[in-house]
Every structure is written in structure tokens, then in C-alpha cells.
Amino acid sequence: MSELRANGIEVPLPRRYGPGHRTYEQGMAAHRLAVAQNLPAYRDPVTGFAVFTAVFLASRGTCCDSGCRHCPFVPRRA
Fold it and tell me: Is the alpha carbon torsion for 74, 75, 76, 78 positive or negative?
């Protein structure tokens, strides 16, 4: 089991997807909507790619080390 970050469901790691990213506001709105609707993923509003929600990733119980945008786990490496 991987350890969840204290705010890992609501806030992505800034180096993966932070406020400085050009699609941050749109992406976070889509993430919040998907979480509210209990969906495992949402479509990135700009690229159209599927992005897993933090809730879905947390339900897996462990980090896959793939660099997921909304990974809720404490990073294993710096």
C-alpha cells in the first residue's frame, strides 16, 4: 500500500499539474466534475486524452510510478 498525501485527492503535485499549466483551471474543473459524478476519468478539455481522477487512483491502493496527473500518493522518489 502506498501512502496518500494529505491533500492528494483535491490538489495534484505542482510539478505534474500546477496552477502555472496553461490548462490547469479547465482541467481541475473537469476533475472536480468527474469526482462529483463518481467517474474514474475525464477527458482533458484541450487534448481530449483520458485522465484518471485522484479518487480512482487512490482506490487502486498503490502508486504505479507512471507520473499520473492526479496521483494522490506520496512520491516514492524526489
Answer: negative
What are the counts of helices (DSSP H) followed by strands (DSSP E) for the chain?
3, 2
Identify the segments of the chain with pLDDT beneath 70.
77-78
Residue 27's pLDDT is what?
96
Contact 8, 72 (CB under 8 A): yes
Helix or strand run (H / E) with residue 52: strand 50-52
Instruction: Give the whole-angstrom CA distance, residue 51 versus residue 43.
Output: 6
DSSP state at residue 39: -
Residue 26 grid coordinates: 479547465
